[in-house]
Design a protein that fits this description.
The radius of gyration is 11 Å and the shape is globular. Helix 2 packs across helix 4. The chain is an all-alpha fold. It has 5 helices and no strands. The chain has one domain: 434 Repressor (Amino-terminal Domain).
């Protein structure tokens, strides 16, 4: 069974990224992450570390709590 919080995080990242008219490539350039890795995060796969989540929040210019809501 997939972890609900990872799925929720992925949906939040995608929603905020799209609201800000950013592509996955934009986030990848800002974080240094590979596009496949970002795609997996948005799909709720994998288990990103807190440091990873912080980098994504910074790239999206949102607080950590906004991503984890």
């Amino acid at each position: 069974m997939k972890n609900e919080s990872v799925i929720k995080l992925g949906k939040a990242v995608k929603r905020i990224r799209e609201q800000k008219k950013m592509s996955q490539g934009d986030i990848c350039r800002a974080t240094g992450f590979d596009r496949a890795y970002m795609s997996n995060i948005e799909a709720g796969k994998g288990n990103p570390t807190l440091v990873t989540i912080e980098k994504i929040a910074r790239a999206l210019d949102v607080s950590l709590s906004q991503l984890l809501k």
